[in-house]
């Protein structure tokens, strides 16, 4: 992982090491300047927009094997290293309960991420980010939630969510409930203020296309990291990284930076783009 990442924008021609590329991003100043949480997300997709395809089990979707690679995974973990809170979905915990989740919530426990835990310690952060679960259905297995008892866990839902399910979850797990909006689903327009009450500064959304839509609709996304693997996959069953009603007006996300990585996926390469305000 020597200096083999080529910067395309804003300083074309500069070279960087993969390790540390996103760890050096200026999220700290971005958060402190606004006095409210800085919320960012990250996806990898193929050239034809696939972020997930059906997996080997009945209810799972997975990153297409043709585009999944350890170099992008390293950058995913580096972004998690900045976070004091992760936003995920109820689907992750359902898959975890069925032993179908693709990975543990970051930061990963593998030795190659020891430096990221050390970096967090040097920044005065906890060893692992806290967790916030977006859910309207409240279909969340309690046993899966309890696997993360070592972290603070929030359940973010709407005021019209099922009160019986909510009471059961609160009685059986260590979650704290944050209510956003009057419907069952999450109205993310109030999310920043709610999270600010708990002192969060860097919030990393690692959920899927419906959560991203909620964040965009609620004007609650500051930055989007997008890895495009230079592969065409085709197929009729797939997810793209945004789903939901048309955003009107469209959400502008100007390009902040772009890099070229020729080492993965093998024989294809990938571009690493950073979009935001």
In short:
With 277 residues, the protein is an alpha/beta fold.
Specify the CATH homologous superfamily.
Dihydrofolate Reductase, subunit A
CATH class: Alpha Beta
Given the helix and strand composition, which structural class is it? alpha/beta
For the biggest β-sheet, the strand order reads 2-1-12-13-11-3-10-6-7-8-9
**pLDDT under 50 segments (min length 5)?**
none
CATH level-two architecture? 3-Layer(aba) Sandwich
Number of strands: 13
**Strand content range:** 15-25%
Q: In one word, what is the shape?
A: globular
* Cα distance spanning the termini: 30 Å
Taken in chain order, the helices and strands follow as EEHEEEHEHHEHEHEHEHEEE
Please summarize the sheet with the most strands. 11 strands, mixed
- Total domains: 1
CATH topology: Dihydrofolate Reductase, subunit A
Overall pLDDT level: 93
Helix content: 10-25%
